[in-house]
Amino acid sequence: PVSGPAPLTVDLWGDGVDDGGRVWFTWETGDGAQHPGFQAEHTFSRPGVYEVVLKAVDDEGLEAASTPITVAVGTTPKVTINTPADSSQFVAGQRIKLTGQAHDALEGWLPDASLSWQVLLRHDDHVHDLLVARG
pTM of the entire structure? Predict the structure, then answer.
């Protein structure tokens, strides 16, 4: 999904196949706005989660729509790492329990699967990437 703080401006790009007849394309942004054509720029001024769709209608009235694109407009989630404590030290081979939580102003408490972890080992004057995990 596309996300960012309000106001959020997005560039919309579509593609289609011309079957020899006339085809009209319209972006529907989920906030009531519509933009004609394959390409458009739209600014979401209010926080919310929007479904953006590119619709096509040909000169015979046949219609088609793209898979929706989710656009989340608002503040970034507040993330808390519960364990381990900040600046904790560990020895090689020691098991470390990673727990945390995140709250989003638009979606509330986020599920564990939406969290990702990156564990770094700082050693002398360089850093080792030890673990990248989700959930």
Answer: 0.59
